[in-house]
Amino acid sequence: MTICSTEGGPMGQPSRPDRLLGTVLRAQSGFFWVQTEAGVIECRLRGRLKRERLATDIAVIGDHVEISRAGGMTGAVEAVLPRRSKLARRGAGARGAHKEDVLVANLDQVLLTFACAAPSFAPRMLDRYLVICEYSQLDAVVVATKTDLVAPAEAQALFAPYERIGYPVLYVSNTTGAGLEALRHQVAGRISVVTGKSGVGKSSLLNALQPELHLATAAVSTALNKGRHTTTVAELIPLPEGGFLADTPGIREIGLWQVPTEDLAWCYRELRPFIDDCFFAGCTHTHEPNCAVRAALRQGAIAPERYESYVRLRSGEV
Ligand SMILES: Nc1nc2c(ncn2[C@@H]2O[C@H](COP(=O)(O)OP(=O)(O)OP(=O)(O)O)[C@@H](O)[C@H]2O)c(=O)[nH]1
Ligand SMILES: [Zn+2]
């Protein structure tokens, strides 16, 4: 996994009038399906690009690219525009230790889905996901599902600690439809990824959120002249109100990604303001004297549960 860049911006004009700008919806076996104003165009890559982009994936879903058209709805990717953000694993594969494995480019937010009950809320797991989002410098939005199964005050009590440290929390029920409008608003016009453990209601959420989703997906699959292979192929699913949901197999495992121990305290965002004030430069905030983090904990500026979560994650416990 790697820290994302913040370079680049919205798409502007292509460098030449005979070219088009677009977004990569799907990448598979050297082919790229690019959404442009002229429709979805199936592209190959220019050989030059393969040589230029050795340190990163050449193009992945979410990438903004410039293409030239060949015949019909085919073409070639001529350039990959700078990425605004990325969700990436640090790869140590055959192509070199520094090769990164980018799952999604230009990702706007990660929707961390957790049920209020059935399955019961697992705060340590949420902490783990939040650490990974912080490390990747990606915006995290907590989606608290199944609010119909608990009293409103109970749902609030579960997630209030996260709201207090600045994470947006959306409370939703797929059963009653409560909160879905706010969620629809949250995903409109953005590239989002939905993650969370099995049974929390991710599929129900996406279906309830966008009844047209299956239609939209079918339309893309038709354009691609292929069936849908959600388990193996990464793709962006266009949303009717603009924006995309990223569907990639690797996303299901992000909760297991490792963050270097020395970066962990920084990834607990409420610890961050204090870590430079510790007496020892390499302070682990677990036992050292004159630790600013533990002083903040004693003064109530850091929630004990989150501090304990930090200590446990540090020691390798999940
Ligand atoms: N009461 C209640 N039940 C829900 C809600 N959302 C989903 N469920 C139920 O919870 C179960 C799991 O929902 P899914 O949408 O399949 O969960 P998922 O996260 O996609 O699960 P995986 O596909 O295993 O990853 C189903 O029986 C749903 O009907 C909700 O808001 N309230
Ligand atoms: Zn310290």
Short note summarizing the structure:
With 318 residues, the chain is of the alpha/beta class. The chain contains 9 helices and 13 strands. Its main location: cytoplasm.
Whole-number average pLDDT?
A: 86
The quaternary state of the protein chains shown equals: single chain
Structural class: alpha/beta
How widely separated are the two ends? 18 Å
Unreliable sequence segments: 1-10, 92-96, 224-231
The ordered string of helix (H) and strand (E) elements is: EEEHEEEEEHEHEHEHHEEHHH
Helix content: 25-40%
Shape: globular
As laid out across the biggest beta sheet, the strand order is 10-9-8-11-13-12
CATH fold label of the largest domain: Rossmann fold
Compute the number of strand runs: 13
Number of helices, counting only DSSP H or I runs of 4 residues or more: 9
The CATH class name of the largest domain reads Alpha Beta
Instruction: Kindly estimate the percentage of residues that lie in beta strands according to DSSP.
Output: 15-25%
User: Which architecture of the largest domain per CATH?
Assistant: 3-Layer(aba) Sandwich
List all distinct small molecules, including ions and cofactors, that are bound in this structure.
guanosine-5'-triphosphate, zinc ion
Tell me the Rg in angstroms.
21 Å
| Biggest sheet overview | 6 strands, mixed
Tell me the count of domains: 3
Classified in CATH, the superfamily of the largest domain is: P-loop containing nucleotide triphosphate hydrolases
EC number: 3.6.1.-
Keywords: Cytoplasm, GTP-binding, Hydrolase, Metal-binding, Nucleotide-binding, Ribosome biogenesis, RNA-binding, rRNA-binding, Zinc
Organism: Candidatus Viridilinea mediisalina
Subunit structure: Monomer. Associates with 30S ribosomal subunit, binds 16S rRNA.
